[in-house]
Amino acid sequence: MENDPIAGRLSAVYPELPPGERAVVRVLLDDYPFAALGSLRALAERAGVSPPTASRLFDRLGYGGFADFQAAVRDGARDRSRLLEFVTRRAPANDQAGDPSGDQAGAVSGAALDHTRPEPTPPPPAGEAGASSWRQAAENLRAGLDGTLTAVPEPLYHRAAALLAEAGSVWALGGPLSELAADYLIRQLAGLRPRAERVPGSAPGRARTVLDLTASDVIVAYDFRRYSPGTARFVHAARARGARLVLVTDAWGSPLAAEAEVLIRLPREAAGPIAPLAHEIAVTELLLVATAAHLAPAGRAADRLAALDDLTQTL
């Protein structure tokens, strides 16, 4: 959030705020931007204040209420690249050494909010800095996975699994990176049941797919910011033919969320420079486990996997 103007503004106005509103700002900056994505009541509870107190902060900042503030946070964050910020922070900046204007105005929490500014210290050696970044990324990944697995309730997996097991056909697609999760789902699901396919990439291929869709078919879409217009176009066309949607998305709120019969929302992205695929794969594996369990009593998955194994060894 180093270059985020909203985070910078929150830290700038902090000294002028009454205690209750300061508490809200601390929560926002300590978990920015995700603390801004829940309800106003949840934010107020985390800050230990009443919802009206929290609401006054956003009025003071000139927003038309909390919903307006949330929209601004979403719009400001969608186009930021964590990888770009990561490499930018680590680029040589000798001309900024000791220059207060180079401070990270948005990264204010804890001691910085109390106006204690430590003296600049020399950067660690390159190898040491790299090791520290790696350790932090590992901790973030571990914490993020724990948070994801905790936040997605078991009944949601079983609802999605019932659709995947009983659908006439299952079609999966994703964006530039999340298409890897869609591909993984189909590779595994095709061993459990027939008619599990990746959505074609070309417009003619997608048109032929949509043409034959019915209400018995299921689309599994992985849609993360920056949300894919191609995924949205296909899903809208498929929904118009009656197909049902299982949507795996993020905390920002995919434009397709209202279309989903089953909505699996991952609570946050891993903090770090690389867009996390591990969360999506972990949720996909649990979906597959739940689907296999749903198919097991009828013996369909076991018979199919045994036949697939025999064929694989003879071909």
From TrEMBL:
Superkingdom in the source lineage: Bacteria
InterPro entries to which the protein is assigned, alphabetical: Homeodomain-like_sf, HTH_RpiR, RpiR-like, RpiR-like_SIS, SIS_dom, SIS_dom_sf, WH-like_DNA-bd_sf
GO biological process: carbohydrate derivative metabolic process
GO molecular function, one term: DNA-binding transcription factor activity
Domain SIS as annotated: residue spans: 160-297
Domain HTH rpiR-type as annotated: residue spans: 4-80
PROSITE patterns the UniProt entry points to: HTH_RPIR (PS51071), SIS (PS51464)
SUPFAM superfamilies: Homeodomain-like, SIS domain
Keyword Transcription: yes
Name this protein carries in UniProt: RpiR family transcriptional regulator
Organism expressing this protein natively: Nonomuraea fuscirosea
The organism's taxonomic lineage, starting at the top: Bacteria, Bacillati, Actinomycetota, Actinomycetes, Streptosporangiales
